[in-house]
Amino acid sequence: MDGVQLLTITVLAVFVGFEVVSKVSSILHTPLMSGANAIHGIILVGAITVAGQATDGWVLAVALLAVVLATANLVGGFVVTDRMLEMFRGRKAAGPDAGKDGTR
Amino acid sequence: MMLASPVLAPTWTALLYLVAAVCFILALKGLSSPKHARRGNLIGAFGAFVALVTVFLSSRLQNLPWIFGAMVVGAAIAAPVARRVKMTQMPQLVAMFNGVGGGAAGLVALLELPHAENAWLRVAIVFTLLVGAISFAGSGVTFAKLQELMTTRPVMFAGLPVLMGVVLVVAVGTAALVVATGSVGLAVVVLAVGLVAGVLLVLPVGGADVPIVISLLNAFTGLAVAASGLVLGNVLLVVAGTLVGASGTILTRLMAAAMGRSVSGIMFGAFKGGSTAGSTVASERPVRSSNPEDVAVLLGYAQRVIIVPGYGLAVAQGQHTAAELAQALESRGVDVEFAIHPVAGRMPGHMNVLLAEANVPYESLKEMSEVNGDFKQADVALVVGANDVVNPAAKTTPGSPIYGMPILEAGDARQVVFLKRSMRPGFAGIENELLYEPQTTLLFGDAKESLAKVLSAVKAL
After folding, report:
1. Which residue of B has its CA nearest to A30?
2. How far is B328 from chain A (nearest CA, A)?
3. Cα B88 from chain centroid?
4. How far is residue B95's CA from residue B414's CA, in Å, rounded to a whole number?
5. How many folded domains does chain B comprise?
């Protein structure tokens, strides 16, 4: 793909990025940050590509380090975001297990 | 090379990456509304899964056992931590995950340098190196600050602005040389300079502002990923990275606006001397303190109570007790609401997460703009482990570091009860005049213990 096409896609993605989060309630700032954080863990695709083309031991070692870091970002990011959001329940669902970790 | 040809034709690869990109957009969209947030996150994870399957099927990859091994290691480290971390410690975990992503982008760019055919690609590479390294090191410092491995106050020393300037000049200089020569050795220097820059960038930021920095570094990592996508010619990385870069920038500004600060003021405020540094010394001025029974009477016979939870509540793990107290009061017919300041807790929206964990329905959590008019009709404002977010200095004292930050008007309530550990000032280190007002009562002690005592006293009424 040539440079101009990539530039076009980049510019459009900027506008989409601005648009989707412009009206988010402050309740969700933390999960949104965390979710966006998980999404850039997709650098794992890049790390895998580089590791898969490595022929030199050093290159492979550095690439594998990148794979470990990127996987941690991707997997950890989605898991922690899910844990946070799991807790957002409406009035209906709140009930029997209320205060299960609390003092009694 | 004797390798099997890839399973997927390039067209299919491109289409599957498109699917993944759309998933990411839907994920961000979903995360913007409480109803669809969880599904949004799962759509994002699905997109990532599609992308990973695609990369393995679309190109002839060697070293597959090693790659799978590395992925297992990464997941085995991250998943248990993410699953077990206490919700109060979540901000630093997000910072950590963000940092390693930036680090990965920097390493990928470094390895692609020998393959870069033209100067433009090398520009994208040095950009990724620098920004990735800044994000990695900066996130490390934010982690240390939030985990209280180091002081949460702004770190300033006399030569810092000069040092910062020197680092910037060195960074730009070596980056230019890398673009011109393609030297891998110099690229490692760029990476190292980026690490130093990341540390220097975050050191002068005060504790209360650190979450904004996490969000900013998150946007940085997004941009680094987008640039590495340009280098690899991978459209998905370009789209995903740009999305995160753009949405992260907006989010950073929204968060800063919620604190009444500007992003540049947060990053460079300490340089101008108008820092968030304040006193940590306990004041000796007289206050009215009370006991749990009196507070219980005050609450139990009120018609309307607004609870203002702050970070102290979270640290004491008192959110469950607070939720129980709210239930006990409601069963007595008291109207109870939680007033949530946008930056209550340590991260914007953090308090909502903590209270949601304690099963407080989100309908009871009122945002600042919604609840501020209600304080005038409230009989009691119960401030638990919060300080700066109700500090009138934000409105009345132009010189104060928090001046201009929107606050919860707890002082408008007929009675104000503070549950506080001590008279030490809050996170921003500023004296709170509200503590000395005639309608204010203080109950000293650990937030959770105090709440538990008040709770049992309310039940005994």
Report:
1. B349
2. 12
3. 11
4. 40
5. 3
Tell me if B202 sits within 8 A of B142, measured CB to CB.
yes
* Domain final residue, candidates B210, B239, B272: B272
Confirm whether the ipTM is greater than 0.90: no
CA B152 to chain centre: 15
CA distance B364 to B195: 44
Closest residue on chain A to B100 (Cα): A69
Name the catalytic one among B294, B374, B379, B388. Answer: B388
Tell me which residue in B28, B67, B247 faces A67 most closely, judged by beta carbons. Answer: B67
Query: Nearest CA to CA, how far is A31 from chain B (Å)?
Result: 7
Told to judge if B388 belongs to the known catalytic residues of this protein, a careful annotator would answer: yes
Query: Tens of pLDDT along B188-212?
Result: 999 999 999 999 999 988 766 788 8
- Residue of B139, B352, B446, B454 for testing the chain A interface, max A β-carbons within 10 Å: B352
Binned at pLDDT 50, 70 and 90, residue A99 comes out as very low
Tell whether B128 and B244 lie within a shared domain.
yes
Measured between CA atoms, how close is B350 to chain A, in angstroms?
6
- Beta strand spans in B150-296 (E): none
Could you tell me if B239 and B151 lie in one domain?
Answer: yes
Starting at the edge strand found earlier in the chain, the sheet holding B380-384 runs B365-367, B335-340, B304-309, B380-384, B415-420, B440-444
Q: Do B367 and A26 touch (CB under 8 A)?
A: yes
Residue range of the domain that includes B23: 1-84
Beta B365-367 vs B380-384: how paired, if at all? unpaired
* CA distance to B13, B131, B254, B259, per residue, from B403 (Å): 53, 32, 18, 10
Q: Please name the residues in contact with B436: beta carbons below 8 A apart, sequence gap of 6 or more.
A: B285, B286, B287
Contacts of A46 in chain B (CB under 8 A): 104-105, 108, 225, 228-229, 232, 234, 237
pLDDT band at residue B429 using 50, 70 and 90 as cut-offs: low
Question: What's the N-to-C CA distance of chain A in angstroms?
Answer: 63
- pLDDT tens digits, one per residue of B35-88: 788 899 999 999 999 999 999 998 889 999 999 999 999 999 999 999 998 887
| Domain spans in chain A, listed from the N-terminal domain onward | 23-86
Q: Which of A27, A68, A76 sits opposite B97 (nearest CB)?
A: A76
Q: Among the residues of B31-89, which ranges form H helices?
A: 37-58, 64-84
